[in-house]
Each structure stands twice: as structure tokens, then as C-alpha cells.
Amino acid sequence: MLRTTLLSTVILGGLISLGTITAAHADITPDLSRDSAKVGDTITLTGTDCDPANTVHVFLGDSRVKVRPAADGTWKASMYVPKMKPGVADVLAVCATGTSESHYPTVQLKVEAGEEPDGGDPWIKVGGTSKASTPGSKHSVEGGMFPAGKRIEIYLAIANSDDPGTRVATTKADSDGDFSVSFTIPKHFDRGTYVVWAQGPDDKRHGMIELKVKDAPTQKPDRPKPPKTGN
């Protein structure tokens, strides 16, 4: 029998999803390609027993990658070691559906000093993703490896849709190709699963970070104070 709890799971500062957490993969430790690596090095994590219909999310510091398992349930995810303090870091993998998460045992990596790679595909990460994501809430977006000095547009779109969504912020990449900007979820947005993505001068969608939006809490009206009575 699987042990389950209903929780909103925060992993290394980033929300994965809101749903049922199971212990189905608690005894299946993923295989890390190396025991130690420098910042900027590429590591590979492999595992088994994730349903092909699900998605595997792998987390290391501020980096996150997601991959689809093969037909036999095996999966392989590669990522570079992000900028972080030297020491022992946790690498976490989660086999997830839209409503449930199954966590693999954490694997430890010894991180040594190094430099992040200068080249690669543009990337983004979204901050402030929590169970408090509601219409009107504010979120930060950071990114890197975009063309220096060029305009970047941030969009919020319904997940699994061809609709590009609503442009919620614009900014420019700095001389290193990095950017940081914030946006507010429009108040007219309905609850559901959305994706945040960035568009640079290449007109491609970069990022596709999932963001779940819930209904805003209903405010209770203030109770009138009883009138004062004299002696």
C-alpha cells in the first residue's frame, strides 16, 4: 500500500505541482554519472519505472530540467551544474503527472568551484511560484543566454495550447545576455495550469515554465461594531 499525503510540495525553492505525493519510487535510487563536478560541468541522471505518460523533473540548485520517459519507463536527463557554493548538493528527481508526484531518493553531488558555460540555449526561471499563485499575484522571471541588449517579451499562456497567451512583461537583456523582470497575473485569468515563456529576437518560445493559478481567496465583510451603550 502506498503512503500518500495531500500537500503542496516545494522542492529546492520551486513548486512542482499541487497533488498527491506517493512513495512509489522511494526505493529506486537514480544513477548519477559522476560523484563530483565543477560549476559549468554537465551531469547526467538516469532512472527507471516512470510511466511513459508522465514527466520526470530533475532539480539541482536553481537548475531544473524535465524529460519524458521511454516506452519501458527508463529516463535520462542531462543538465549543467549552475552557479552555487562549493560543497555537497542534492540532486532530486520526481516522476509527476498533472495531479500526483512520486519522489526518487535524493542523490548527492560534490560541487567544486568553476564557471557557468558561456554558450547554450536561452533559459528562464520563475520565482514566487507557490500555492498563493492567484490572479493579481506578482512573480519574478530571470533568464540568461539571450542576445545582449535585445528586447525580451514574457508571455503567460494556457498549458498545452497553441495560443501564445498574454504578454505580461517586456525587458532587455544586459551585456551578458541575462535579464530579470517581474509580472502580475492578470486579474481576469481563470484558475488552471499556465506556462510562462520568453521570446527573444529569434521569435522562438523559451522556457515554458508551468505555473498553477488558483482562485483568489474570498474576503469576508467586516462585522459592524456594536453601538456603545451608556451607563
What does this molecule look like?
Helices cover 0% and strands 50% of the residues. By secondary structure, it is mainly beta. It has two domains: 4-112, Immunoglobulin-like; 123-213, Immunoglobulin-like (Sandwich), CATH 2.60.40.1930. The strands form four sheets. Strands 1, 2, 4, 6, 7, 9, 10 and 11 form an eight-stranded mixed sheet that branches. It has a four-stranded antiparallel sheet with strand order 15-14-17-18, with no helix packed on it. Strand 6 (55-60) and strand 7 form a beta hairpin. Mean pLDDT is 79; it is low at 1-19.
In short:
The chain is mostly beta strands and 231 residues long. The protein contains no helices and 18 strands. Strands 1, 2, 4, 6, 7, 9, 10 and 11 form an eight-stranded mixed β-sheet that branches. A four-stranded antiparallel β-sheet has the order 15-14-17-18, with no helix packed on it.
Per-chain topology:
Blueprint: E1 4-11, E2 14-22, E3 31-32, E4 36-38, E5 42-47, E6 55-60, E7 63-67, E8 75-80, E9 87-96, E10 100-103, E11 107-112, E12 123-127, E13 138-144, E14 151-158, E15 166-172, E16 179-184, E17 192-199, E18 205-213
Parallel strand pairs: 2-10, 4-11
Antiparallel strand pairs: 1-2, 3-5, 5-8, 6-7, 6-9, 9-10, 9-11, 12-13, 13-16, 14-15, 14-17, 17-18
